[in-house]
Amino acid sequence: MSVFTDETRERAREIIARYPADRSRSALLPLLHLVQAEEGYVSPAGVTFCAEVLGLNKAQVGAVATFYTMYKRKPTGDFLVSVCTNTMCNVLGGQEVYDTLAEHLGVGHDETTADGTITLEHAECLAACDYGPVMTVNYDFFDGVDASTAVGVVDELRSGGRPMPTRGARLCTLKEMAVQLAGFADERDGAVADGGPGEPTLRGLRLAQQHGVSVPGFDPNTPIRSKAEADKAAAEAKAKAEAAKPAPVEASAAPVKGGDGASAPTGVAEPAKPAEATGPAKPAEASGSTTRDVKAPDDKSPQVRTAETRQPDAGTAVPDAPGTKVPTDTTAPASRDAQAAEAAGVAANPPAGDGKPAGDEAGAQERNLTEAKAGTDADGAGAADANETGAQK
Predict the structure, then answer these.
(1) Staple partner for 179: which of 37, 115, 163, 198, CB 3.0–4.6 Å?
(2) ∠ CA(20), CA(25), CA(29), 5° rounding?
């Protein structure tokens, strides 16, 4: 089992301190990036470490680590190469790029080369359709790639080079990228100064400038406050809000006059006046609990409604919640004549067998076919007349 360094433990405490004391579980995502930054993947030891520092069990941490694809559950190469094979990039050749890399590197999806340099994966979407087909190396973009340029990028990586992404900062290893994803700055000198925006992005900016499109009240020269300045402004706003609250009304110390003008004993409140009758009296609210009374639903659950539809017997219906009304059959019983007529109708229309629908008798079919054939052989009788005769029969 790996033992995490003191630096990792110090960074873990710093991450947890970013969140309120009763919301420390929110630190789980950056903590998983942090342990991945040390080991290159989220190992069982990393799951245990996150569970211990957050007071969770390993099942809770493992459920999160297995949900997000950015957390790798087995050792990963220094460079994670992701090729978009979703609809737009696929139409533009993304699948061909992925297939070429898989054959060139000798690995498949989520597999690492023998030298431990590159892990290849196909991605469902990299959110850069206007630059497609795209691939990323440790989440930095290479736009408009084809099979040959993609092979050139991975060959340069395997030889120790660092090709420059189309957009974004200078390439770093997956472990170094995980540190940044955990919320810590890139410490390499001038790393974030490299790269630049893509042409489609600049095109949108130029159109906005050309047509005067901007956020209402936007001032590009507005300075960004530091954390200390922001905390000070928040404290001042909170103090101002507290000062604006009305002072609590204290009970009057003046004696209450009685009905004869004499002073009532101190502390005895004046009897309440009867409320004016403005409508029907409201039922008294339930007392003894701070929970708001909730009216039980009148609607049944879909399961109960389906059961009652299949077997509409009010005597067997069971309410599924307090307050649910069980339907009762208020239909008057049928008379003897109606019962006799219904029995006669049932006897005259026997139910269908298992192999054919009701009314589909072999004798009637044979008779129709014979008459249709005879009508076709007779002079003046066509196929249309035969069909009409069969339909009438």
Answers:
(1) 37
(2) 115
